[in-house]
Design brief:
Order of helices and strands: HHHHEEEEHHEEEEHHEEEE
Strand content: 25-35%
Largest sheet: 4 strands, antiparallel
Number of helices: 8
Number of strands: 12
Distance between the termini: 53 Å
Radius of gyration: 33 Å
């Protein structure tokens, strides 16, 4: 998994944020006059006669009568009937057509009209029968961002600034399902822990979404959906590659690693600290520091099964030896 430093703000989600929060360029005042008109002294629909400013009293009386006549005529004109609101079925059909135009695999079960953007393009929130929902802007071409990407972008922005304007977000309760959906994807990818947190965290160099899942009392994971399936990395690997896992603590990593020592010479190690040392064709190498201040170097194969353990006292030649413990090297045997 080769990844960008993630979610700075994802491009599409950032565009949606800007569209959804773009202010109206000129505030119109009653009578059709804008603030700029008022500031510059422009007067529309009024006549100022020569002579004294505003004309004499007779002129002002005449203008008042003319204004009253115009107001009466406007009041007597029939008002155009407001266009009927779209039905839920019409919103569903319109939103579904937008996603079909984009080729996105979503069979909608619900869609609501949220409003319009400054160009008067409708904005919808859609619920899919599986997977994430979408915010859709019915522009040309359409724009659709899934709810998980929006939530991940918002979480990153708020982590930097709790008062950040995160733009349009999904609000339908059915779309608040990232834990269930992303947790299901994690199980498909081979995660066996109890997933208790899940969020979109960015995009890979191949422009695939990356998700983070947290595990109860164990190491979490990053997972990326590729063209051939799921690419899965535990947080020890992520951190070793200078990534960040927000849902996993060092204590959870240590607790989860203890289970990998069962049935080995290190089974009695109460793991307090853990370090990933590297990997080769035979698997990954970890250093574990135990509560008794001894430690082990542990080789785990690519299936996650422990293959060998080496006490720190005799492991100086493996990856530079142990760094987390102060165990003295084993004494060299005296030749007989």
């Amino acid at each position: 998994m080769h990844y960008k430093q993630v979610l700075g703000l994802i491009g599409g989600a950032m565009a949606l944020t800007l569209i959804a929060t773009q202010p109206v360029s000129a505030q119109q005042q009653p009578g059709g006059r804008s603030e700029s008109d008022r500031a510059s002294g422009v007067i529309r629909g009024e006549q100022v006669l020569p002579g004294r400013i505003g004309g004499d009293r007779a002129d002002r009386d005449q203008q008042a009568r003319q204004q009253e006549t115009r107001s009466s005529r406007r009041a007597s004109r029939p008002r155009a009937a407001a266009a009927p609101a779209a039905t839920p079925e019409e919103n569903l059909a319109a939103a579904q057509a937008q996603l079909q135009a984009l080729g996105l695999p979503c069979q909608m079960t619900e869609a609501s009209l949220l409003g319009r953007d400054p160009q008067q393009n409708p904005i919808y929130e859609a619920v899919c029968d599986s997977g994430p929902g979408y915010i859709i802007i019915a522009s040309t071409p359409p724009l659709a961002i899934d709810c998980f990407e929006l939530a991940g972008t918002a979480a990153t922005a708020r982590a930097r600034n709790p008062e950040a304007n995160v733009g349009q977000q999904c609000s339908l309760p059915v779309n608040d399902n990232s834990l269930a959906v992303i947790g299901g994807w994690a199980r498909d990818a081979g995660v066996t822990c109890t997933v208790d947190q899940a969020l979109a965290v960015g995009k890979s160099m191949n422009d695939n979404m990356i998700y983070e899942v947290g595990c109860a009392n164990a190491d979490g994971y990053w997972l990326e959906k590729t063209a051939t399936g799921w690419d899965l990395q535990d947080c020890m690997q992520v951190i070793a590659a200078e990534g960040v896992c927000n849902f996993t603590t060092p204590a959870e990593q240590a607790a989860g690693f203890r289970t990998k020592l069962a049935g080995t010479d290190a089974a009695g190690c109460d793991v307090q600290e853990l370090r990933m040392m590297g990997h080769n064709a035979n698997g990954r190498f970890y250093e574990a520091r135990c509560a008794a201040n001894d430690g082990f170097i542990v080789r785990v194969n690519n299936a996650g099964v422990t293959q060998q353990v080496y006490p720190c006292a005799t492991a100086q030649n493996i990856g530079g030896g142990c760094r987390l413990t102060t165990a003295a090297p084993a004494a060299a045997s005296t030749p007989q």
